[in-house]
Amino acid sequence: MDTRELIEKALEAQGKAYVPYSNFRVGAALITEDDEIFTGCNIEISSYSPTLCAERTAIFKAVSEGHKKIKAIAIVGDANFTYPCGVCRQVIREFGKDAKIIVANSKDEYREYKLDELLPHSFGPENLEEANTRGGKNV
After folding, report:
1. From CA 135, how far away is CA 119, in angstroms rounded?
2. Which member of 5, 36, 55, 109 is catalytic?
């Protein structure tokens, strides 16, 4: 699947957003390492806290189906180049440290990033492994 096709899937997912409070629709589509596609849209709840971003919806759908490695994720929103929030960047880090992140306005207008560009000096599973080998103590 090429970048434009992945963006098209994100645009389709955006149309399914449930956003009665902000009216700010976001869609995401990702491709796993074994070339499966998962989509997500943002889903708002009146108390806001439990609201779920499109990126996390797509990622959690993939993980719940046994796919734990993301190759690429495309994100589209109602604003000019809608970037993933900090929480979504951290979730992308967990399942796609080397994933291509595509932020798009349309199939023809998009930007591509690596996670390190959007979340430099990130914290991931290997940091916990390192801490465990040191006994969880600062040395």
Report:
1. 27
2. 55
Q: How many helices (H) and strands (E) does the chain have?
A: 5, 5
Round the CA-based radius of gyration of the chain to a whole number and report it: 16
Q: Could you give phi then psi for residue 95, rounded to 5 degrees? A: -115, 0
- CA dist 114 and 78 (Å) reads 22
**What's this model's pTM, rounded to 2 decimal places?**
0.89
Read off the pLDDT of each residue in 57-69 and give the average, rounded to a whole number: 97
Vertex 12: Cα angle to 78 and 75 (nearest 5) = 50
Instruction: Based on the residue annotation, tell me whether 65 is a catalytic residue of this protein.
Output: no
CA separation for the pair 19, 44 (Å, rounded): 5
Within 10 Å of residue 70's Cβ, how many Cβ atoms? Answer: 26
